[in-house]
Amino acid sequence: MENEFDVVVVGAGISGIGAGAHFNLKCPDQTYVILEGRESFGGTWDLFKYPGIRSDSDMHTLGYSFKPWVHKKSIANAPAIMEYLEETIDEYELHPHIRYNHHVETANWSPKEGKWIVSVTDKVNNKEIIFKGKLLYMCSGYYKYAHGYEPKFEGSENFEGQIVHPQKWSDDVEYENKEVVVIGSGATAATLVPELAKKTKHTTMLQRSPTYFVSAPDEDYLANNLRRFIPDRLAYFLIRIRNISFQQFFFKRARAYPEQAKERILNMVKEELPEDIVNKHFTPSYNPWDQRICLIPNSDFFESIKAKTSSVVTDHIEKFEEKGIRLKSGNFLPADLIVTATGLILESFGGVKMSVDNKPIEASDTYTYRSLMYSGIPNLVSCFGYINASWTLKADLTSEYVCRLIKHMKKNDFEVVCPQFEVDIEESDDFLNGFSSGYIKRAADSQPKQGKEKPWINLQDYFKDWIDIKFKKLDDGYLNFSKLEK
Description:
Layout lengths: L3 E7 L3 H13 L5 E4 L8 H4 L11 H4 L15 H14 L6 E2 L2 E9 L4 E8 L4 E12 L23 E3 L14 E5 L3 H10 L5 E6 L5 E4 L4 H6 L5 H25 L1 H13 L4 H7 L12 E4 L2 H7 L3 E5 L2 E5 L2 E4 L4 E3 L2 E4 L12 E4 L2 E2 L7 E2 L3 E2 L5 E3 L8 H21 L4 E4 L9 E2 L7 H5 L6 E2 L11 H10 L7 E4 L4
Parallel strand pairs: 1-2, 1-6, 2-3, 4-17, 6-21, 7-16, 8-9, 8-16, 9-12, 10-11
Antiparallel strand pairs: 4-5, 5-6, 13-14, 14-15, 17-18, 19-20, 22-25, 23-24
């Protein structure tokens, strides 16, 4: 049939594009389709349009393992990342495999057919199309694309200016020569504030509590110079390993010695800003890496504060008024535009309604196997990147695992693979336990659970995952391989 494939991939963002390239490199005999609900590739990097959107990881680790990042800037903006993704699509001839405006609605595993039956809405022709795949590979990201987290603020209907969430930013948002308040203190706010401050009358970041910020150059001096003397691929590999090693070392040191890590980070900020500002607005109550640390390229956020084009207020919102925001302290922040950088909504399975043999399944009823498969769900792999490092590091490993899995099943004439594990509830934990970010806590009840030991734990450790995914035997006693019942 026209719409039957060996693999159905959901999503043409950075994970789905990488998946297609891996299939072409390592499983060229496999047929696959990449279903993308939007009209373009890119996922996050095409969805968000707010000023200054950029990576919050270096591109030597956010880039693919198989395609060197050769741009001068290692902290890249969205247009540069989209250019890189388009180059990948062209180089690995992925255009024929991607179906745009194909929004996946439901996916049901049919034990009788040994296939996933995927119901898709063709948004151009407004009709339902059925795709079938032996394996379903979810590369749909981790958050809801329709809208972000938008808490209700009392009096918002009375505000005379514009209120916009960064996820819904459009060209008609006016901010030049305006008083702007950005609510939030995460990576999005840290990106927006210095960029808006270039053109606004003043930009204020309003936060309930401080976040950790670390400044770094947006250009990697060593990487740019290495490429002058050695091949791009080798230079990329060396810088990639260096950066991964540093990320992992810093994360583990921060978890083992949180007070030392906290002191080190705050001292670096104090080199940029007055101590009283750091103590009041940049000293979090939690330990480093309990939440993701925000990267500030070239100290741009700190520079805007020193230039007095932006400022930080730490307080709670009482209500919105006609001309701005009334704070619980009694202070008032004037505003013509309010940007609610209040976070994302985590979403399992990309919002697709999943079922096995027509029985609905929820991620929260499953246990994560190597943080890429789910207990009791056959022939399904899901891509979920790292919290403590670049997303693509895990995406690459997951696609390599899928290729290994396909080859193993083909060699042994297996048609079905399913993680099987019975666990005592007292030995289970949240999938992202140990991270206290709001968007993670809000979605804890909807996420898969994890166990207390491998392979049922989410390691958040690239090097351990690299060894396990590349070299550990697939038939490990936890994966049940079988043939279809005739």
